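Section 5.1 Outputs to date
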Amino acid sequence: MLLKANVPMMQIWDDHDFGSNNQGKNFGMKKLSQAMFNAFYDLPQSDQRWSQEGVYNSQKFNDGTKSVKVVMMDVRYFRDPSHHYDKEPCEETVSMLGDKQWAWLEKELLNDRADLLFLVSGIQVIPPLVATSKRHPLCAFNKRHRKANLAAIADLGEDGLVGMNAEGWGEFPAERRRLLRLLQTAANKGNFRRSIIISGDIHFAEFTRMVVPPTQNMKAVELIEMTSSGLRQNWASTKADPYRLPVVANTRGTGLYDQGCKIPFKYDGVWYKNCTTVQNPAGQSGQPWCFTKVSSRGEGLGDSWGYCAPAGADIPWGRQGRVGNPATFARDPYKIQLATSNYGRIEVDWTKSEIALQVLTPHETSQFSGEIAGETIVRFDIPQTVG
């Protein structure tokens, strides 16, 4: 109670708080779930969640010179069925938020301003749709909705892009485009200096980055998402995500850290699952490096290598963060998947105009980086619009 009395607290749910696995609007006890949610968090009777359907909510924190807006979307209460083989058949609409919540969200993002926006979704936003061969059971691709959702994928320049085979906004391509374009509109209006997406659900943690392409009237916008999920469980998968933050390197030991490492890569007959300190193609050893181009067989190509960015180095979206125990992330420091549990932490340094996005696990020790398993640092002193 002491914590609640002194620290502002916000709440949202996902499927296992709301009802059953991957459930949406047709869950029969959703009204009871909402009443129990409100009572569990001891929400005051003046809270809108006692009178509205759904638990979406927002709050703005402002000390007179700095402001942060947190917007929490309810991706369960109004969500239409996503698959033909869900507990209910596909319907005439394929909506994630429903009309009322969409109207509320547009007002929250377009009619307000703050230095920073944290947009919270129970499920991932940035990862795109699964491979084409996996689309057939999705309601978004039945006869009624196929054309509109294919157009949404094309509009974002994602034709042929292979995403993760897991629940997320990617299963609703037109809804996902609507959300991404809404964030882009808010950024182009100058409503927020930086927008960060926070999500969960997926049973591992990862950091993703997407540049939403420009339109005739809007500049492109860079979005960063931090996903943290998995208490007393993990999903030690090798799921690909084309938008997962890359490990970055410079060019043959010089210049900017702006080249994405190709991991894993093969060098002198040995496979490497992360940056390595073995002798590089220039004959030097001791400093972590990687290949930035590989053949179709994963073999490093000639002089296409560079030193991996050390902690604190400038990288395209901010600064290189600290990396924890490799036992928690296997081969990719931006995908923490092997720890028993993980949880997220965000620290804002207003003097440096930086946001530290961190994933913590019980496995980290002072031998590595304190409690931090993975970290990236995002700058907000430069425009998030691109071009």
